[in-house]
Amino acid sequence: MTMPHRYMFLAVFTLLALINVASGATEACLLAGQRKSGMNINFYQYSLKDSSTYSNAAYMAYGYAS
Which residues form the signal peptide (predicted)? Predict the structure, then answer.
């Protein structure tokens, strides 16, 4: 292959690989079946770069799980 053909092949190959990854990423978020009851998860909002909670050893050992 000449140089321009090689670049064209690499561009098409890269585009197809990116399309394959993007389509796989959206399919992975779909449910495989019915939702089952299980663990309840609570999300808490913290300030950006907040280290007051996770730098406290007692909180990390027991406090966050309550």
Answer: 1-24
Tens digits of pLDDT across the chain (66 residues): 567 888 889 998 898 888 876 666 555 555 666 767 777 777 777 777 778 777 888 777 776 655
Give me 47's structure tokens: 């300030």
CA nearest to 65, candidates 39, 37, 36: 39
Range of the domain at 22: 2-65
Cα atoms in the Cβ-side hemisphere of radius 13 Å centred on 65: 5
Rounded distance between C-alpha atoms, residue 27 and residue 43, angstroms: 25
